[in-house]
Amino acid sequence: MSNKPFIAELHDIGKLVNRQALKQAGINIKGHTFHEFDFSQLNISKPSSPSWYAQFTDEVRSLASTKVPKDYIADVLLTRIADELASAISRTWGGSQDFQNRKKRGEFTVEGIYVLWNPNYYQKKKEKGKKWSAFNTPSELKEMFEFIEICKNPDEFFERFKDNLKLTPEDKSVPFNIVSLYTHLELTGKIYRILKRHSKIIVDDGRLYLEYLNNRIQAINEATGGRIDEPTQKGKWIYRLVFCYITFPQSLSRLQDLNIFRKRGDLIKSFSEDKATKDYVLFFTDDFMCLLIPKEDEVQIHELLEPFLKAGFIIDYREMEAELNLLTSSMERAYEEFHSLSSSRCLKLYEKRADLGLPSQISPPLCDSCQMRQGKERIKDQIREYLCDICYEIRQIGDPAREYAGWEEKGLKAAWMKITLDQEQLLKTLYELYGKYVDTHPAMRNVSSNDKKVLKESFRPLAVQIDFVKNYKLFLRALKNKIYEIKDNEEKPIFTQETFLYPIENYYEFGIFKVYSGKDILTVLDLFSNLLEEYFPQCLEDSPIKLSLSIAHVKYPYQEHWRFLSKPENIINIQSPRSSKLSINVIQYKLLREKIREEDRKLSHFLHRLAEIEVETRSNMVVMLEIFNNRNKFPALLELTQKGLSDRQILDFYKLTRGVEIS
Hints:
Elements: H1 19-24, H2 70-88, E1 90-91, H3 97-104, H4 121-127, H5 138-150, H6 154-167, H7 181-197, E2 200-204, E3 207-212, E4 215-217, H8 220-224, E5 238-247, H9 259-273, E6 281-284, E7 288-294, H10 301-304, H11 306-310, E8 314-323, H12 331-340, E9 347-354, E10 376-380, E11 383-387, H13 389-395, E12 413-421, H14 423-440, H15 449-457, E13 460-461, H16 462-483, E14 500-501, E15 510-515, H17 518-535, E16 545-553, H18 558-565, E17 572-576, E18 580-584, H19 586-595, H20 601-617, H21 620-629, H22 635-642, H23 647-658
Parallel strand pairs: 16-17
Antiparallel strand pairs: 1-13, 2-3, 3-4, 5-7, 5-8, 6-7, 8-9, 10-11, 12-15, 12-16, 14-15, 17-18
Helix pairs in contact: 2-7, 6-7, 16-17, 20-21
C-alpha cells in the first residue's frame, strides 16, 4: 500500500480539461474521468498514486468491485457516496426523461459558471484573461497526470487551480451550472473525510464491509438508500445537517462589551480550523455555521458545541436527521414532501436551542450584562457593576475602540455601522433568483413548463449559499479596504484609521466613524451601494445583505445603537435617534441621491421648509400637498413619489444626509 494520501477532491480534476481543444490536437478523451484513457497517446504511463483511483468513482458502486485494488476500494466507494451527497444537498434534480435525454445530448451545455446574483461574472473574468480550463494542450494534460501523482493534500490542489475551479461549474448544463466546481469539491472532500472518520473497514468471511454505528454496507445504495419516492430502498447510514445561529444575551453597555464579537469570531475560527472539527463545518460566517455531523449516538451536538456554550453563547439550530439520500438543504420542503408520501424511511426535522440554561435558582444580584447568571461586584474607574464570570472575562479581553472615548469634540457625532447577512432571507433570495434563471435563460426557451416547475421545486441551495457567502466575505473586505482609499476634492483621504474604526480585528461587519457632516454619511452609503452593485447586482431591491447606521452624539447609549443595528428592515437603514429614521433599498437610494443634490440650493431650502411644515402640522398629507403644488418648481420630488418613495422617506433622507435637525 502506498504511503501517499488518497485525495478525494481529485476525482473531478478532469472537468478542468478542455476536451474540444485536445481533440483538435489529436488526443481522444471520453468523459471527464480517465480510467479508460489511452496513455500511449501521450507516451506516458498512468499514475500509480492512491489518488489516481479516484478516477474510478463512476465505475465503483460496491466494495466487491475488482476495478480498484482492495487497498483503495473503500476510499473510492466513500468518495462516490460523498460526491452524490454533495450534489444531493445542493444543486437541483428532476426533469422528464425527454429533458434528461436532451441534457445528455448536450443541448443545454454552456461555457462557464452562472452566478445567480451576478450573471455577468464569468464574462467579466473572461474579458480579464481568466479561463475555466486548466488543461488545453497535450503537454498540459501530461502535467495533470503528473499532478495527480505528486499532489500531497487538497489545499495544494485548490491553491494551484483556484481560478479555474471557481469559473467551472460542477455541471456544465443550464440550469445546473450554478455551483462552482471549487465549492462542490470542497464539499465532497469534507463529506468523504467525515464518512471515513466515522466508519471502519470490516473483513468478515473473506468479504469486505464498511461499518458505521454497527450498520454494515457493501454497496452505495445500502448506505444511502433510494430517493424520496423510493420507499423500499431504506438507507442504513443516517447523518445530520445542522444550521446554527450563534447569538449572545449580553447588552452592549460598555465598549469592552464589543469583545463579544472577538470571542465569537475566535471560537468559530478555531472550530473551523481545528483538525478534530473542521470537516464538520461546511461553511460559516461571523454568526452562523452549517454542520454535517453523524447521529447523536456517535457525536453529541452539545458536547461538540461545548466551547461556545461555556463562553455563554446561545445557539438556535435547525437540524435534519436523515438517510444520506434524503439529506437535503431544502429542509422544510423535503420534510413536507417526505410525509406526504407516508414513507417508513428516516427523515426528521428539529428546531432546538443549545445553551448553558438557567440555574434553578439565582441568588441576587443578577449580572448587569447578560441577566442570566449571578453577578459579582466589580469596580473599574470608580464604577461599580455586577458581572458574572463569563461577562467579566469578555470585558477583560481588551479595550476595543479606545479612540472612540476621545471623540468628545463639541457637537461631534459618530455613526455606528453594522452590515448583516440574513441567512433566512438569503435562502428566499436564492430560490427567487433560481426560479428567474429557469424561466428566462435562452437555453430553457423550449423546455416545457412542467419541467421548469420540477427543476425549481427540486432546487437545493446549500452549495450556492456557500458561494454567496464567499462573495459576501470578499465584499466586506473590499469595503474595508476601499473606505480608506476615498479622497476629497483636495486628494486627501476622507477617512483614516483614526476617523473610521474597525474595533474588532478582522471583523468587518461592524465599524464606527466620525460624522462631521452629511457628506460622511453619503460617502459610506455610496461605497456600500456601489460595491453591492458590483458584487450582487441582482440584489439591489431585495437583498439579504443589509447596512444599518445609527448616528448620535458620542455619549449616546451603546445598547440603544445596537438595538437598532441588530434589526434591519431594509437594505439601507439609518437613524438619528429621536429625530429621523429611514429604511430604503439601493434602487431607492440611488434615485434619492440623483434627485436631491447638495448643489441645488433652491431644492434644499424647499426641503428644509417641508421639514418645518411636517413638525408644525404633523401631517404627511400637508407635506404631500406642498410637493404637488410646487411640482413645476421641483419636479424631482414629484417624480420620487411617483416611483414609490413616500414624502416621509424623502424628508428623512434629506435630514439624515444633510445633518439637519428640525426641533
